[in-house]
Amino acid sequence: MKKNKSAKFLVAFFVIILLFWIFIPIYWVVKTAFSPEEEVWSMGLPRNPTLANFRDIFVGSSGSMAEVTGAMLSISPTIITPLINTLLVAAGAVALTMVVSSIAAYNLARFQYRGKRIVSSYILFAYVFPPFILMVPITIIMNRLGLYDSLFGLTLAHLAYTVPFAIYMLRGYFMGIPQELEEAAMVDGCSRFQSFLRITLPLAAPGLVAVAIFSLVLSWGDAVFATVLINTQDKYTLPIHIGFFLWGGEIVDPGRLAATALVAGLIPAFLYIGIQRFVRMGLVAGAVKG
């Protein structure tokens, strides 16, 4: 009995520590984003909360000056262009991942051929290597294709993040869909591809949603590929914009930095909250049959 109580106490203790570990950075970002400049470094809640930081990151002009901690400093450009760039890259990565991974996963789930087991076993092998190891070959490829310093090139690079796991999860989901449904559709006159589009994909909707969210989150938060492949400021995505928040890459304006980080984090968070039921269904189904 004492052992059970001790175990429960330890679990509760470590859960509380973990919650504080997660909550404190989130609290500090939210608190800083709503704090005026003179209260940024204070520990407690802001006494005079303000929305000025959010106003400035959306309507401030590039190269304008502001007084920060007693010095006149150049304000960073607004987040509108980086936000649009990030949306374009993330949407493109999601769309391409859905197309490539669904076709590849269907191939692995339905067809038999020599080497299939090896391919299935090493789908996730790409995650063994840190992303920066891929930088040199990907940079060379993008240069050869004329896609260096382009949003489309960055979108293609993100597929190295998203496609392997998406294939693995969708393969498990497709294996859970009875082949008899596709065979019945083909008896009624559908081709293999038509049965895939009209029968298999609609039934795999929760798995596709999970793949879409997974791809969106990875692409949205990528800083490694974006830093290496993008050089033009007009093509910066949010992670680069946050890293180089002021000219020269010096973070001297914590209020606007926190407001930018909060906006960047809330968009995928709200999207996930809205469809988390489908994500959970997709992950469970993909794991059971994988």
What's the alpha carbon Rg, rounded to whole Å? 24 Å
The tally of structural domains comes to 2
Q: Mean pLDDT, nearest integer?
A: 82
Q: Estimate percent helicity.
A: 55-70%
N-to-C SSE string, H for helix and E for strand: HHEEHHHHHHHHHHH
Biggest sheet layout: 2 strands, antiparallel
Give the end-to-end Cα distance, rounded to a whole number of Å: 40 Å
What sort of overall outline do the alpha carbons produce when their principal axes are compared? Answer: globular
The CATH superfamily of the largest domain appears as MetI-like
**What share of residues are in beta strands?**
under 5%
Strand order of the largest sheet: 1-2
What do we call the CATH topology of the largest domain?
MetI-like fold
Task: Give the strand tally.
Answer: 2
Number of separate helices:
13
Q: CATH class of the largest domain, please? A: Mainly Alpha
CATH architecture of the largest domain: Orthogonal Bundle
Low-pLDDT segments: 68-74, 286-290
Pairing-aware structural class of the strands and helices? mainly alpha
3D architecture notes:
By secondary structure, this protein is mainly α. It has two domains: 2-74, no CATH class; 80-246 and 256-289, MetI-like fold. Helices cover 68% and strands 3% of the residues. It has 13 helices and two strands, in the order ααββααααααααααα. It has helices at 2-33, 52-59, 80-110, 116-121, 135-145, 151-175, 179-187, 192-203, 205-220, 224-229, 238-243, 254-274, 276-289; strands spanning 65-68, 71-74. A two-stranded antiparallel sheet has the order 1-2. A hairpin with a 2-residue loop joins strand 1 and strand 2 (71-74). Helix 6 packs across helix 13 and helix 9 packs across helix 13. The chain is globular and about 70 Å long.
